Amino acid sequence: MPFPFLERLSGLSNVTTVTGLGAIPVKPGPSAANQSGAVQRKQPTALNMSVAVKRKLARLAVSSLLILGDGVAYLAAYCLLLLYFSGTSENVLPERIFALAALAAIVLNALAGLYPGYRLHDHEHLRRRVTASTKIVLLSVVGAVLLPDSQWMVSNVALFLGLGLFLQLVLHRVARLFCRKLEIWGERAVILGDRDQVSRLATYFSSRWQLGIQPELSPTDALGFAPNRPPIALVAGDIDTALADLTIIRRRFDEVILLCDTPNLKVSGLQPADARGEIGIRLAGNGRSSDHRFAHRVLDLAIAVPALLLLAPFILVAAAAIYAIDPGPVFFRHTREGLSGKPLRILKLRTMYGDAEKRLETLLRTNPAIKAEWETSFKLKKDPRILPFIGHALRSSSFDELPQLANIISGEMAIVGPRPFPDYHLRAMDGKFREKRRSITPGLTGLWQVSARSDADIKLQQQLDEFYIDNRSLWFDWHILIRTIPAVCRRNGAY
After folding, report:
1. Domain ranges within the chain, ordered by starting residue
2. What is the tens place of the pLDDT at every residue in 398-443?
3. CA 241 to CA 245: how far, in whole Å?
């Protein structure tokens, strides 16, 4: 499936031909020869950050107005119920129960992605809202069973939420219209497909502005590193071709979405029901979300600071034992590759003899079996360079890595991420994978450490790290953290 408009783009990457996307010529900027590499790298980053900040602020403003609309709907429902109960002998529901139910509904709506709720069909909005209200009614049933004299709670809460839901359907549309009036509704997107399909999809999304998509037919000035680059790519057409080009497309956009069929146009054979009522399946993002970076940073500091304070006495004891066996520096810094390829000097407890490098050179030169083992994983199961007792104990427990908590606190490393490898280790890896590795902060522990540790060869290490980078999330990080403890205790593959 050709994307002919991409033939006009330039300066996006060093790729000259891409299957399914046509030719992408590369033209250096007018003053590229006079600019340093560092300056050229910083400028796109700053521009992309500006776009990301604007997008985040717009989404925040829209979400705030939608939440306000839902709050007004529940307040109106409460006032109507007061008028109803004032003419009867029924007990009026306490205000705090009303407020708690409304707050719970809004929180559940937020967790369901309804603020701002872009790219959701109207029937999916309704389903998620009804689901949230139903959950609260079920909780009120539990409360009615457990609490005495609270049988009235279920009917009143259900009446309140039902009335609030009806009013929300009206006020939600008013809030969206107001956001559109303020020109903050929706997000710009480029549609990738053949010309006829792109034109019809652009008309579809323009007429159904409630979906939050602002289609652009001419992406020439919107792609690349321009300040007005659209954040979303909507892929229409053959699925196999789209997946083949995914690696190329994801480098240019914050989000890549494989479109489902529309009511009047068969796009890819996927149905919105397959994508939980959304306009498409989110294939990938480029991992640059400022929200995610902030959340990961908070997690890193929350763990690293107290852990370093708690473990500092034990680190000093280990350092004393190292010095007693082999006098010399007990800590050492080793240069590794960090975020964006910047040099990173990691801090470790020394577990080898001071002349370890010379010993390794001798071993590799004189022992072919050891050389073959080293070239497979850059590890030796029976490494003669390691200090007796204390060296093996520190390495098998990974205790020698704990001084890197200081690197985490300084922001050079993260708790979870791909391990920072030496240059000789990285040279054995694929060049494109090394570029992907540089896109996130290296970590103290990672997926391959808890999966195979030192038993993993280069190919498996690369596969596990690539899977983590493509699927990174706070939940995935917590999963790896939890698995790190038993992995360290078992000491399997640690040497």
Report:
1. 47-286, 291-490
2. 888 899 999 999 999 999 998 888 887 788 887 788 888 888 899 9
3. 6
